[in-house]
Amino acid sequence: MVASAGIIIIGDEILSGRTKDSNINWIACELDNLGIRLNEARIIPDESSTIIKTIQDFTNKYTYVFSCGGIGPTHDDITTECVAKAFNQKLYKDSEAMRRLKLHYEGTNIEFNEARQKMAILPTNSELIDNPVSAAPGYRIENLFVFAGVPKIMQGMFNSILSDLTGGKKLKSKTVSSNIGEGLIAKDLEKIENKFLNVKIGSYPYFKPGSFGTSIVLRSEDELSLEKASEAILEIVIKLGGKGKILDGNEIDDRSL
Prior knowledge:
By secondary structure, the chain is of the alpha/beta class. The protein folds into two domains: about 160 residues, MoaB/Mog-like domain (Molybdenum Cofactor Biosythetic Enzyme, Chain A, 3-Layer(aba) Sandwich), CATH 3.40.980; about 80 residues, Alpha-Beta Plaits (2-Layer Sandwich), CATH 3.30.70.1130. About 35% of the residues lie in helices and about 25% in strands. Strand 6 and strand 7 form a beta hairpin.
């Protein structure tokens, strides 16, 4: 069975447009390298009921769930209390998290006040996730990994839990670059996808001065099916009067035909 994943991005600042999210793209690429299928990513507000419901929904559906944001020291950082409610757990002040935070603030002119101590409060039955950037830990509870929202911190946390993730075969990919319009080949692509059920096909039109075309991206664990489906699409492109070529996954489609 292929491991699945969901990403939850929490924060009004993302939804308002004040902050641009980059965490979904970064995690998606890492999961792809691990052979874990990202099935869904959702951006939600700092609202308790929405956070609790989304956590319960995702953790019931996916092998791994990654949440980003809402575990800082401010009043609107409510992710942890929502996680506790979602898993029916109590909150407690973790001694190891406190130790790490105290050590981090020692020798600075920043007071380790009550608000900052909030970052050491965790749901019971959770495990700390190391934060090599700024000390305040994330945590794991069951299949949910709770990260900070700041990209560099999130990435450090993610890299520290790689040994906890079990993936499968990495999806292979091929691209059929063509100089025909997406609308012309759409019906045929549907037929190819129905024939090769283990191959996912996406079509992406492009336009450049004096020409246009479609890049058709195929992804599958099965290399033989991938090759046959790619060849079938190229054959259709040629029958439709177009030109095309097949590129391996690591080749860039420069659209020169």
